[in-house]
Design brief:
- The protein has seven helices and eleven strands.
- 19% of the residues are buried.
- Strands 2-1-3-4-5-9-8-7-6 form a nine-stranded mixed beta sheet, with helices on both faces.
- It is an alpha/beta fold.
- Helix content is 27%, strand content 30%.
- A hairpin with a 7-residue loop joins strand 3 and strand 4.
C-alpha cells in the first residue's frame, strides 16, 4: 500500500490545487526520457525536441531501466514520472538491434497511459546541418503552424493516430486569437507511404504580395527526419469517453470590488485616487482679480458718496 501524503503547509496546498483537475486546463508539458541504451542519433533527436519545446518540457538525462510502455507493468515508471513532473505527454527513446533508433510518443490521462505510438527515426538531420539567414531563426515559445500533407492522414488508422499525437506534442498552448506577425515557424508532416512520414521544421518569411495579406515562403531550418510507424496502441473506447467529458459548469470571471449581501444584494466599492489638489498648478487669474478689485473699489466709492449725501441732508 502506498502512503498518501497530504500537504502540511499553505505552499504545499497551493501546489496540490494547481495539479488538481481544472475547468480550463493550462498547456500540456512534455517529458523526455532515455532508455537503457540509446544511440547518438536518438540523443540528438531528444535534445532537438527539447530545444523546440523548451518552455513546456522536462528532460531527464539519466538512463532509465525497466520502462516498457507496450508491456504490462512496464508503464509504472512512466506514470510515476508523469505524476512527479505534472507532464501529460512523454517521448521515450531507446535503441536495440530489433528496433534501432526507436521513439515512443504517448499521452497521459489522469497520470495513466492513454495511447501510444512507436516510430523509428531515419535520415535525421539536426539544426546545425542547415544553412540559412540567422535572422529568420524562429523565436522560442512562438506559436507554430502545423501542416499535414497527404490523404493517408484521413484514411489510414495509423497515420490518423500519429496526427493526433503530433498535434498534441507540437501545438503548445491553445489560444483563441493569433497575431500573424508573430507566427515565424511551421511544422510540415508529409505522408510518404501508409507507414512512413517525413517531418521537417521550417521558418516563415513574410514578403509583399500587393494585398493586405502578405505572401509566405518556407525556409527549412531543421530538424528533419523520416518517421516509420512500427507499433501503435489507440485508447480504449471507455477511457476515450471519460477523457472527452467536459464539465457543464463554466468558469466564472472574478468580479473585482463587488461583495454579496443577503439583504442588499450586490454591493460595489468605488475607489477614487488621491487628486493631490495642493500640488496642482492653478491657472493665472490676474484679470479676474483686477475686475474684482475694480468692482470692490466702485462699491466703496458708492457707499462713501451715499454717506456724504446723508450728512449734507
Amino acid at each position: 500500500m502506498l502512503r498518501i501524503k497530504t500537504a502540511k503547509t499553505r505552499r504545499g496546498k497551493r501546489e496540490l490545487e494547481k495539479r488538481a483537475p481544472q475547468l480550463v486546463e493550462s498547456g500540456k508539458k512534455t517529458l523526455l526520457l532515455h532508455g537503457t541504451k540509446t544511440s547518438s542519433v536518438l540523443n540528438s533527436v531528444l535534445t532537438q525536441i527539447y530545444h523546440l519545446k523548451k518552455e513546456s518540457a522536462v528532460k531527464y538525462s539519466r538512463k532509465n531501466d525497466n520502462i516498457n510502455p507496450f508491456e504490462s507493468g512496464g508503464e509504472v515508471p512512466l506514470e510515476f514520472f508523469s505524476r512527479k513532473t505534472d507532464c501529460s505527454i512523454f517521448v521515450y527513446g531507446s535503441h536495440s538491434k530489433k528496433r534501432p533508433n526507436n521513439l515512443v510518443i504517448g499521452r497521459m490521462y489522469d497520470h495513466h497511459i492513454y495511447d501510444l505510438v512507436e516510430v523509428g527515426v531515419e535520415n535525421f538531420k539536426p539544426l546545425d546541418s542547415f544553412t540559412y539567414d540567422k535572422k529568420l531563426a524562429p523565436k522560442e515559445g512562438s506559436k507554430p503552424f502545423i501542416c499535414f500533407i497527404g490523404e493517408g492522414f484521413e484514411a489510414v488508422d495509423e497515420l490518423k493516430h500519429l496526427k493526433e499525437v503530433l498535434l498534441d506534442l507540437l501545438r503548445g498552448e491553445v489560444v483563441e486569437n493569433i497575431n500573424l506577425a508573430g507566427v515565424d515557424r511551421a511544422y510540415v508532416v508529409s505522408a510518404v507511404s501508409p507507414n512512413r512520414v517525413f517531418f521537417t521544421h521550417c521558418a516563415l518569411r513574410l514578403k509583399k504580395s500587393g494585398t493586405v495579406v502578405p505572401r509566405m515562403e518556407l525556409v527549412e531550418v531543421g530538424p528533419s527526419m523520416d518517421m516509420v510507424i512500427r507499433r501503435h496502441r489507440p485508447p480504449n473506447e471507455s477511457l476515450r469517453k471519460v477523457a472527452f467529458k467536459t464539465s457543464l459548469q463554466k468558469p466564472k470571471k472574478k468580479e473585482k470590488n463587488v461583495k454579496g449581501d443577503p439583504l442588499q444584494g450586490k454591493i460595489g466599492s468605488i475607489y477614487i485616487p488621491d487628486q493631490k489638489i495642493g500640488e496642482m498648478s492653478l491657472p493665472n487669474k490676474s484679470k479676474g482679480v483686477k475686475r474684482e478689485r475694480r468692482e470692490a473699489k466702485q462699491n466703496r466709492s458708492e457707499q462713501h458718496s451715499s454717506k456724504r449725501r446723508k450728512e449734507d441732508s
